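User: quick one, fold this
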Amino acid sequence: MRQQSDAPGRYHLTLTADGRPVAHGWWGDRATADRKLVGWVGEYGTLPAARITLVDEETGEELASWP
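Assistant:
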């Protein structure tokens, strides 16, 4: 029997710089969202006052953040 996947768009990644939203992304798979978080740190981590957060939209829990 096939296991049910995570809900589409369950994992929300947000990038802010200087307190303003710059980019958002939503993924249904936690592993994909985790990889995107690492990629965004590498790509956008040098923006002034950059902050990247990953939230589980289903539970409201903050799963990861940088810095």
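User: anything notable?
Assistant: The first helix runs from residue 30 to 44.
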